[in-house]
Every structure is written in structure tokens, then in C-alpha cells.
Write a structure and sequence with these properties.
This protein is mainly α. Helices cover 60% and strands 4% of the residues. The chain contains 48 helices and eight strands. The chain has a five-stranded parallel β-sheet, with helices on both faces. Strands 6-8-7 form a three-stranded antiparallel β-sheet. Strand 7 and strand 8 form a beta hairpin. Helix 35 runs antiparallel to helix 36 and helix 36 packs antiparallel against helix 37. The radius of gyration is 38 Å and the shape is globular. The termini are far apart.
Length: 922
Amino acid sequence: MAPAEGPDAAAGRGPLGPPRGVWGDGIPPKSGGSWGVGPPASRVVSRPELTRRLGAAARVTVVSAPPGSGKSVLLRSWIGEAGLEESTGWVSVGRDDHDPQRFWLSVLAALRQTSAGSRLVRELTASPDLDGWAVVERLLKDLAPLQDRLWLVLDDVHELGSAEARRQLELLLMRGPQELRFVLATRHDLRLGLHRLRLEGELTEIRAAHLRFSLAEAGELFAAAGVELPSSALTLLHARTEGWAAGLRLAALSLAGHPDPERFAAEFSGSERTVADYLLAEVLERQSDEVRRLLLRTSILEQVNGELADLLTGDEGGERVLQELEEANAFVVALDVARSWFRYHRLFADLLQLELRRSESGEIAALHHTAAQWYTDNRYPVEAIRHAQGARDWGLAVRLLGDHWPGLQLSGQAATVHALLGRFPAEARTAHAELAVLAAADELAAGSLAQAEWFLGLAARGTASVPADRRGQLDVLLSMVRLLLARQRMNLPAAAEEAQRLRVVADASDTAPPGLSEELRALALINLGITEYWGGHLAEAEPHLDLGITLARRIARPYLEFLGLAHRASIASVRSSPYALAEERARQTIELARRHGWTDEPAAGIAYIGLAAGQIWRRRLEEAADWVRRAERTLRAEAEPATAIAIRYVRALLELAHGRDQEVLVTFEATERLSRLLDAPDWPLMRTRALRLHALVRLGETGRAEQDIAEIGEQGRASGEIRMALAALRIAQDDPHAATVALAPVLDGAVPVPPTTWLAHACLLEAIARDALGDSPAARDAMRRALEIAKPDGALTAFLFHPPARELFDRYAPDRGEHATLATEIRSLLPAEPKLRADAGPPRRAGSFRLVDPLSKSEIRVLPYLPTNLSTPEIARELSLSVHTVRTHVRHLFAKLGAHGRAEAVERARALGLLAPSGRTT
């Protein structure tokens, strides 16, 4: 540092900033901005939150962060924006400055160039006997009368190498007048008594985390450089630089004029020349040989602790070195409160690995082997496998993955296994039987069932090539993957067989892999329960699930617990009334998924649709729609077709409740395509097929409904869901007796119809049919039973799929008694005319019915065109809409008006006052 009277003082040291060319962060910032690039007017990247913190700072502010974080630039920008040029003195400490006299003369010179300092601080010249303590005492005396705010910025204060000067600075910090404010910019914290200031509330701290650029700020920086990046490339660069200002700026400089910005972003790393040069000069070359060796050898690790550092270097004291590097902001980040585990900044790690390849390339495989052994011994299987792969010891990597795959699978880490498999050479999957079976599981997770079967066959044929001491492990892997395949194919007998086989293995201590007996038992129990659930054997499924969930909790396997809870919640939604128990279990499942990051797993989708179904029956359709959308985000149609079919069913149920019958038909078509992936495609589809039949009946397409029923097998026609749809069809065809015949096994319990709310609908259909037959006592009894079943859940929708005329409901529903409140609410939603009619003639008492659901704004726009002679394409042109959109709105209008054609819709709309009584269109 030059004396105050030297040339540097004249060159600009003082209120506006440091001497020309002296910048603490290594890259000269552009004045008036924060890491901008380009012409002066475009340089600023505004950081209002940081400048606000500086403006409201306490008496001492510490800005502590690694090199290149933008400390100096931020401070200059803040000074300029706040108009503090005349009240701020700036001193930049030179590298390894050990001269207290030079330091204090620079401080005095900087303060004297401020407006307040020029009046109060006396001039002082260098002399051999000048004492820093005396300078501080004199400065304190000079500034005692200070009335106006005065700022002293000390940039790169970590370079202050004199311990005596640091003690003198501490004195000034502690005893300085209230209006004298200090800003200390440093790469690491100094022992300046700051802990006392922190306790007294006199310290503001801006750390590396505060200085990291946000994604939006990074975008501003690139825009200022004239670089247009796709959002994906910007996100990637931001992640790789971790918001580090210098890294972003260097990337921007390299990108200017680059022919392929996306490719550059994908390949950008710490080994890129400009970044590597910067990190070498500012960080790595400043370290001792011992520290450099530790950094290079541990760069093969994603995370490092002291024990690993000592093991890889052959030295001692690795934890102390790592802690010191972290304290020095040397791109080493502590990962835990105890500061025992660390990681390197991504770009710094890239540089270290590059330097390791240059200097010790022959040692890299041995380092990976050593790391793999340590991770294996300390039960970090994923890291052990990665380092075995890093050593290119594929045999070891296969054995490790085979040993630990069951645990990874049972922990819900299929994505991790997929990544590990991707690191093997392509030929390894076919060369190792153990790897082939794991490849089969990976293909299953991706929905490639045929490819999974091929790999399974390959693994089974390669059993003889597996060492005898590993064949038991291979048998377990084969059985687990066969179980997954059978479940996904809905081959329930095969799934049950494999689950029982695993249960036998788990119970035989001599055949179960070490440490996996309890896990296999839990897996077997839960999969038995799931298999029985999908097979409709709910009474058998629930105890197996309960046992499996209890065991999973005891052995701390939350993913198994999650799978079991999801299916147990679904059973409760089918078997329990009211829905409270099902909802409690579904929310329990969702909370467990949230804690572990499984909210997009298909099993979570099962819990979501459980909640959705309850809301549909209560006619809380908006809330139900939200849960259905969440469930649809979990869809992995090819990987979990049965679950996808269940989700599509609830979507169809929601559309039916909304009166959107055409959407029900579209949803069925999508569900039918999914069912073709299953070994038993018909029966999982049956519930959704029943909804399709209800929609066809409501659309008046009884012929198509008859054709559908004719195509259903005998077993399907005997199901409760199809029987109810058949009853609705027969009522619409004026054959109420046939309807009662179809309903009889449902009503007497011979054919179950889960959930029980569907039974309320069956009773309603029975009441309509009995009324048509003139059997009023039976109709009244059926209506009473329908209300009794619906009451616990307030299942309004059970009365609205095929609503009776309000007159019929009034005859049989009570005005008083325990069901009166529910009956009143249902009555308010009913149309005047029944919808189950075979003809499409004009309704009776057309003016007395009500809309089931209100019309949307778009439907109201279309409605006035229905009485006209315009065709659908002509209406579309009039409204500037697509033909498909107009047709959709017309279908919704028909459904909401309970009409089967355009003329009937117009008549009903006029009766409700939605259209003028004449032929006018407005």
C-alpha cells in the first residue's frame, strides 16, 4: 500500500473508491453497477435487497464471501446509488500488507477526502517513529465532534497481515463515534471482537449466501451482456455457478458472440479456461502444498469429511484443514452444524479434478477404490457403487449394486438406481446376470414391460454363470422383479405366487440375504395386500396390509409403509362409511409422501383420488377437481397402468358429476387403451365402462348403450356397476320391471357395489322403477333407504347422476325426520322432469325444472345461437371459436339443461328465462 502522499493518493484513493487497478475481488468491476457487461448504460444489475441492507446497517457491517462474489462492486454500486461519494472513505488493503503505518496513513488519507473528514481529521505524514496506536488515539480525538454520518470502507481487509494493525483496528471499531460507520469487505472473518458487536446488535453481516445471484439476477446479467439464453440454459448455468458472480460474468464474457449458447451452457464447468485461470490464481495457488494435495485428492468425492481426507492423503488433521478452508471462504461449504462434512463449490471441484488428472492421473483409480471401501464399511452404498464405477471395477460395482438394490428399491430410490445403471458400459447389462435383472427392474419403472421381460429371461438363463455364493441373492432379485412385473401386468395369480415365495425366503434364515429378512417379509405382506386389493378381495387385503405397514414402521422402511398406507386408504374409501376414515388414511399417506419427496409417486395418486371421490359424492366438485389434477400429475401410464386406470375412473366420475357426458366417453377411450397393457384387460376397465354407459343413457344414445352391454362378458354384466347402468338404461327405455330385475342382486347384497354411496344410487333407481310400476310402498322404502345410506357422507351426487323429477322425489322423500335436511338439499338441485326418458319429446311442466349446474360465461355466449338456423361451423365463425370448442359448449348446454337435442335445449332455456320466449336470438 502506498503512503497517502504518494502517487496513488492523487490517482483516486478516497471517497470515490480504491486506487486505480486495486480491486479486492480480482476482476475490475464496472463503475455504477453490479457485475454488468457491455456499454456503460447497460451495466447495472440492480440488487435492491442488498443495498437496502447496507443502507439500514448497524455501526459495523461485514461483507464476507469468497473471491469473485461481487463484494467490492456491490459496495461501489451502493455508494453511487445512495449518493454517499462525499461521505465515504475507501481503503483497499494490498496483498500480504504487514505495515501498520502504511495502513493507517491510507485510512487517514481516505477520511480526509470526505467532506466531514476534511474538516476534522488532521493531516499526518509518514515518519520512522510513527506509532499505529497513537494514530488511532489521534483519530478518535479528531472524530469525537462528528455530527454527520461518515462511512469508512475497508476492502480486502483479510489481507491485513499485521496482527498489531488488526488489534488497532479493533480499538477503532469499538471506540469510534456513533456517526462513524464501518464496512469491512473480506474473504474470511477476522478476529476483531465482532462477537461483542453481534451481541450488542451493532453488527450487520452480509455473507456469501446473500451475495449469490438469483436466477432472475443472472438473467439480467446475461441480458446486459447482450446474451440471449433459453430458460433451460440459463437455469443450468445458474445451477453450475451456484450464483457465483465471477462465474456468471466469465460465462457471459465467453458467451458473447458464441454460435451455440445452449451447448456452451451444457458444457460449462470449472475447467473452462477463464474460470480455471481465475480459481487457480485466486484460490488454489494461495494454498500450501499440503492443502493443495488434500483438495486435489478429495475432489473425487461429492462430500468429504476429515476421516476420508486423511485416508486419501495418508496425512492427519484433514478435518481441521477443511474447517479452516470453510472459514476462509475458499469455496468449501460445510454441510452440517457440527462442520464435519463438507463439499466443494461445483466449479472449484471441476478445477480440482482437472488438476488431479494433470498431476496424479495414475492414482485416480486407487483413490476411487479406497473411497469405495470406506463407503462400503460405513454403510453408504450409493457412494460405494459410484466409486467402484469410478475405479472402473465393474465386477465390484455389480456386486455392490446387487447387494444393495433391494434396500434401495424398498426405500423408493428407483431414480437413483436408474442413474447408477446408466454409469455402467452398455455391454455390462448383458454380461452380468445380476445386472440384467436390475436392468429389468429399471425397464419396468420406465414402463417398458416387453424389454423388462427380455432382461428377466436373460438373467434367468445366466444363473449358472453366477458364483455359487451369490445365487441365493440372484434368486431373491429375480423373485422381486417378477413380482413387480406381475403386478404391473395385473397378473394377480403370478403376483401372489411371487409374494408368497418371498415370504418363504424371508422366513428361512439360511436363504434370506443378510439383513433383509424383515424387509422381504414386509415387502411380501404389502404386495399380497395390494394384489388382493386389485383382485377385489378387500377383506383379505386389509390384514396383510396392516401387518406389512406395522413391520415397515418397525424396520424404518417408510417407502413400504407409504405403499401400504395408500392402498389401505383406498380400501377404506370403498368399504367404510362415512368417508372420514378413508380421508384420514389418505391424508396420512400424503403427509408421509410430502416428508420424503414422494408426492409425484403413483401411490400418492391413489391417495389423491381417494380424497377426490369423497368430494365428488358430496358435490364439492372444485375441490375434487384439484385432487384429480394432482393425481393426474403422478400418472405413469405404461409403468403403472392399473393405477392410471383408477385415476382415469375418478376423472370420468368427476365429469359425470359435472354433466359433461362427452368427456366421460373420451376418458373411457383413454382408459381402454391403458387396459390393453394388462394381462386381464377387462375387469379393471369395468367400473369406467359403467360410467360410459351412464353417460350414453343421459345422452339418449340407448342403442350404443345396448351395443356396449352386448359386448361385455357374462362376468362383467353380473357386476354391480354394470347392473346399475343397465337399470338406468331400462328405465330410460320404459322397462322398469327389467330395471328392478337388474338391481335385485345389488340391493339384497349378493353383488357388492363399492363404495356404499353407489348403493344409494341403486336405491334411487329402484325408487324410480317402482314408482313407474305403481308400487308406491316399495318406491317409498327404496327412497328412504337411499337417503339413509347417503346421509353419513352427505352424498348428494348419488341423486343427481339420473335425478328423478322433483314431483316424484317430493312424494317419497320425507319433509320431517332424520333425513329431512338432506332431502331438502337434494330437492333444491333436482330438475322438474326426470332425465331417464326413452323419447326426446318436450318435457312435462317445462317451466318448473332447474339447472343442475350454472352455465359458464362461454356457454352463455353460445346459447343465443341455438334457436337460429346456423350450423355449428357457422356459429363458430360468428364467435371466432373453433368448431370443436363450440361443439363442446353445446354438449355442456344439453347436459345442464337436461336436453337430448337442440330444440329441447331451446325450449328448456326459454322456460328458465335464459332465452326470450319468441324466436329472437337476443
